[in-house]
Amino acid sequence: MKKLTLGAAAVLLLSLAGAARAQSSSSPVADGLRGLVARNATNMVAAAEEMPAGKFSYHPTPAQWTFAHLMIHATGANYGMCSSIAGVSAPQTEKLADTDPKDKLVSALKASFQFCEDSLKNVTDANLSEEIPFFGGRKVSRGGMMIIMADDYGDHYSQASGYLRLNGLLPPTAQRRRP
User: Fold this and answer.
1) Is 61 among the domain residues?
2) Quick check: helix, strand or coil at residue 131?
3) Coil, helix or strand for 134?
């Protein structure tokens, strides 16, 4: 399991605290996670749509994933983490491959974010300390899984952004900042 840096944890907690103040919610952590899911869905889907179909097999070095594999990984992570946090079963989906066409991978990514949105609707902060299943048969607190998920989102979008830039394309968040 990746270690969450102190800086990343501070940013997450500050963003969640800001969401709590803005929303005056009884579940600021769960609300913050739902906001992160929505932002990441926008950014990751836009990144996948920005990458040309012929570049989904691109990877900077032989040791790194292809862009397609990154999208497959993000899709699977969404299903795994959202189902665990929400305490629901993830749907059975078709196994994806790096060689699948762009439209299939983008569609699968969108569906995984929709699953997260739907499954996290009723999650509250009431049981953040409850132990839930984690990868590899381990357990983690529900609140811990939320932080891991937020950290993963940063990793996934950072990788996608790097792959886009290495192909002469601007990531979606950089495009929005242009005058």
Assistant:
1) yes
2) strand
3) coil
Instruction: Specify if 110 maps to a domain.
Output: yes
pTM, entire model: 0.85
The tens digit of pLDDT for each residue in 160-174 reads: 999 999 999 999 999
What's 19's DSSP letter?
H
At 113, list the tokens: 């974010």
CATH number assigned to the domain comprising residue 132: 1.20.120.450
Alpha-carbon torsion (79, 83, 86, 89), positive or negative: positive
Cα 34 from Cα 118, distance rounded (Å):
10
- 1 domain residue, yes or no: no
Domain for residue 120, yes or no? yes
Task: Give the span between the Cα atoms of 38 and 28, in whole angstroms.
Answer: 15
- Split into its structural domains, the chain has a count of 1
Tell me the sheet residues that pair with 95: none
In whole angstroms, give the CA distance from residue 27 to residue 11: 18
What's at 75, amino acid-wise? T
- Is the C-alpha dihedral spanning 55, 56, 60, 62 positive or negative? negative
